[in-house]
Amino acid sequence: QVQFVESGGGLVQSGGSLRLSCAASELMTDYYAIGWFRQAPGKEREGVSCIRVSDGSTYYSDSVKGRFTISSDNAKNTVYLQMSSLKPEDTAVYYCAAAVGEIGIPCYYSIFTEEYDYWGQGTQVTVSS
Around Cβ 28, how many Cβ atoms within 10 Å? Predict the structure, then answer.
């Protein structure tokens, strides 16, 4: 079972940038898609962005489109989330997760929590106003 270590979170002012990293314990090419999710206090976990491992296709939620960029380095088994123009409403714990592809069609014009099988522990992102 793959394990993830997220890093790169922290405190940043509104308008600032952060880059999150998600390092996997095994080959990411064994999985269908890797996704980034976030959960703010008192709110449900929501999908932010994902990348299909086979062809690099990406998806972004409307709330982050144009501000966040997902990328992967398969040689390092790492997926990144570059976050720019951060807003206070981006404050949340950010998680990465892997989908094996047995539920739905992961990262096909959408991102759903239930399609992802293995999850990291999360990294806190706090954006001050």
Answer: 23
